[in-house]
Amino acid sequence: MNSRTTLLISASMGLAFSCLTVTALRAHAESGFTLMSAAFTSGAAIPVDNSCSGANASPPLTWSGAPAATKSFALIVQDPDAPHGNFTHWVAFDIPASATSLAANVPHTDELAGGGQQGMNSAAKIGYMGPCPPPGKVHHYHFTLYALNSTINLPKGASLKAVRSAMESHIIGNAELIGTFSK
């Protein structure tokens, strides 16, 4: 194979990869279900105020583009980089389909203002628990909002396991926001 043929093959493969990447990005954009925060952008550091080093206040969250058949939302925030495996920082469920946000500093109560319930985090407490990693490496906090085609009607303070089990066959979409934090 001469160098011209090799160059043509490389260029063709690069163009094909670029087309696939653009197609994948376009499909994600067309799905349109997004989760955002005014406190941080995806991939950026979570503010100290939203951590155990600060006020431990939940960040404000907004979302848009949920599937039309959405009947409720569930929110799960986890740190897969925790020393002993996945650490759950927040569980909320039965958030009404009409909701498009959660305000900053959500109270640590069973019920959410505007509807919905909060479950237990890995510290066996209700509500949001901010990042609190040991000193060292950067941890990644996955805020995942699930669109469900029903409510899951669990008792207040439900565990992550119960919420995941109840919503398993009802997920019709999800949106994710990843923040980082380190000490």
Task: Tell me what the structure shows.
With 183 residues, this protein is of the alpha+beta class. The chain folds into two domains: 31 residues; 150 residues, Alpha-Beta Complex (Phosphatidylethanolamine-binding Protein), CATH 3.90.280. It is built from two helices and eight strands. A five-stranded antiparallel sheet has the order 6-4-3-7-8, with helices on one face. Strand 3 and strand 4 form a beta hairpin. The longest helix is centred in the N-terminal third of the chain and has 29 residues. It is globular. The N terminus is likely disordered.
Write a concise keyword list for the protein shown above.
disordered N terminus; 2 helices; alpha+beta; Phosphatidylethanolamine-binding Protein; five-stranded antiparallel beta sheet
Which strand order does the major sheet show?
6-4-3-7-8
Mean pLDDT figure: 87
Q: Which blocks of ≥5 consecutive residues have pLDDT under 50?
A: 3-30
Number of domains: 2
Lay out the secondary structure:
Blueprint: H1 3-31, E1 34-36, E2 61-64, E3 72-79, E4 87-96, E5 101-102, E6 117-118, E7 139-148, H2 160-167, E8 171-181
Antiparallel strand pairs: 1-2, 2-5, 3-4, 3-7, 4-6, 7-8
